[in-house]
Amino acid sequence: MKLVVVTAGLTQPSSTRLLGDRLGEAVAQAVTQAVTGRAEAAEVETVELRDLAVDIANAFVTGFPNGRLRAAIETVTAADALIAVTPIFSGSYSGLFKSFFDVIDNTALTGKPVLIAATGGTARHSLALEHALRPLFAYLRAVVVPTAVYAASEDWGGGRDAFTDGLGERIERAAEELAALLLHRVPRRAEPEAVVPFEQQLAALRPGEPD
């Protein structure tokens, strides 16, 4: 199973990348716990949009993504599930985040499980997840999990337990939802079908012999 984290943080290090890492780790752990005794596991890969900013701008000018951007797009579209994390500016997702998904074909994410998340300086911008990010991925025909995760500056001081860290609880709940969708979507290895001899197939097509 391939899980891809798309993060649009502009600084390095960034809280956006940190949130993406925590979500990716939580989903991988939830998948592992759900498939105990089976061979499935989640491989997590991160796409840093900060490193692709110039490539994305050039794609808008030329109409074609270069090799590095094309590879990132293929990574995202081939994933079994996505975690999409953006900083919130002026009550909405960042321009870099939106531009990346603008260069992806609007049918490429059809049916793909997606967990949306965002970071910001104040909790007042948390509704951007519902009025900006969720409609964006609905337009792209993705399947967005019910729990969206927002991390304000004050959320990073928690002790990562159920009593002092609301962020940790939201991450765990969202991770379990995405893991459930991921496991439901990824097809299990089918048993090989029995081969029916040609003579037997032909005999089934002949009219019955008279008594």
Automatic annotation (TrEMBL):
<dbReference type="InterPro" id="IPR029039">
    <property type="entry name" value="Flavoprotein-like_sf"/>
</dbReference>
<keyword id="KW-0285">Flavoprotein</keyword>
<protein>
    <submittedName>
        <fullName>FMN reductase</fullName>
        <ecNumber>1.5.1.-</ecNumber>
    </submittedName>
</protein>
<dbReference type="InterPro" id="IPR051814">
    <property type="entry name" value="NAD(P)H-dep_FMN_reductase"/>
</dbReference>
<dbReference type="InterPro" id="IPR005025">
    <property type="entry name" value="FMN_Rdtase-like_dom"/>
</dbReference>
<feature type="domain" description="NADPH-dependent FMN reductase-like">
    <location>
        <begin position="1"/>
        <end position="156"/>
    </location>
</feature>
<dbReference type="Pfam" id="PF03358">
    <property type="entry name" value="FMN_red"/>
</dbReference>
<dbReference type="GO" id="GO:0016491">
    <property type="term" value="F:oxidoreductase activity"/>
</dbReference>
<keyword id="KW-0288">FMN</keyword>
<keyword id="KW-0560">Oxidoreductase</keyword>
<dbReference type="InterPro" id="IPR023932">
    <property type="entry name" value="CE1759_FMN_reduct"/>
</dbReference>
